[in-house]
Request: fold
Amino acid sequence: MNLRSIDPDALLLLQRESLSDLPGDLDASDGMLLDQAFAYPLNQAVMQHADVADLAAAYAVGILKYRPFVVGNEHAAFLAMGLFLYLNNWQLNASSEEAARVIWQASAADLGEDELANWVRSKL
Reply:
């Protein structure tokens, strides 16, 4: 499967634009953490037979695991998941409330990566 990956600058732009009403610095707090967060799904793609839902979940989990932003990591995780799907001609069909609940569950480790991927798969 030939899938497009996310350009970190595109996510940074989306993050800044969508949270522009918040005070403070919305850029990544640590460029190395952002690099690790973006390397995570690429490693998953190489190490396992991953489909688009697995990789979308891996983008979200990478952000949630490495927490590269001072604020808005959950928001960035959802943006990364949606952007990855969009770049690969898929769309998540879930309400914003449901998606927020699922991302918060993943952030709190109440929902594992495989469960997140299964949820994504069910909403494609």
User: Anything to note?
Assistant: The helical segments are 8-18, 31-47, 52-66, 73-87, 96-107, 113-122.
